[in-house]
Write a structure and sequence with these properties.
Layout lengths: L7 H25 L3 H8 L13 H11 L3 H12 L5 H17 L11 E2 L2 E2 L2 H9 L2
Antiparallel strand pairs: 1-2
Helix pairs in contact: 1-5, 4-5
């Protein structure tokens, strides 16, 4: 049985989408005139979800996926637009982080594995597969 993985042409497309999200979020953040020190501090905040791996791979993968899904920043952005404008810059920072990760090839975790993502394998095993086009 072969393992499911995103093929290279689709992986490239998804990474370009990540770049587009990053550029959009950073551009909107700049247009809002929001504080760049806040951006710098908040940009890596979703990576705090890595701490959940201390409670096991299943919990870690779920926490990572919650923090790195595009649903969270979009929902927070909508709340910011309609109810609490101070949340909009935070949504853009979060969205920029997700886009940045996608652009680099870090996808949502599949199962309880850190290396298996919806964009293909990452880490040492993923490098050879990505280069070989598998």
């Amino acid at each position: 049985m072969t393992e499911w993985t995103t093929k290279p042409p689709m992986r490239t497309w998804l990474r370009l989408e990540g770049l587009a999200i990053l550029v959009l979020c950073v551009g909107l953040y700049a247009r809002m005139g929001a504080a760049w020190p806040v951006f710098a501090l908040g940009f890596l905040a979703p990576d705090l979800s890595f701490a959940a791996w201390l409670f096991g791979p299943r919990i870690g993968a779920r926490a990572y996926n919650l923090a790195h899904s595009e649903i969270g920043p979009v929902a927070l952005g909508l709340i910011g637009l309609w109810a609490a404008p101070t949340l909009t810059p935070l949504a853009l920072i979060w969205g920029a982080h997700v886009g940045f990760d996608r652009m680099l090839g870090y996808g949502l975790k599949i199962g309880a594995s850190f290396e298996r993502t919806h964009l293909g394998p990452i880490g040492r095993r993923g490098i050879g597969k990505a280069v070989a086009g598998v």
